[in-house]
Amino acid sequence: MLIDWFTVGAQVINFLILVWLLKRFLYKPILNAIDAREKRIAKELADADARKAEAQHERDTFQSKNEAFEQQRATLMTQAKDEAKTERLRLLDEARQAADSLSAKRQETLKNDAHHLNQGIARRTQQEVFAIARKALTDLAGASLEERMSGVFICRLRAMDDQTKESLAVALKSTSDPALVRSAFDLSEAQHAAIQNALNETFSAEIHVRFETAPDLLCGIEITTNGQKLAWSIADYLVSLQEGVDELLKEKSQPEEKSAQGANEQGT
Question: Could you give the domains of the chain?
Answer without folding.
Answer: 143-237 (3.30.360)
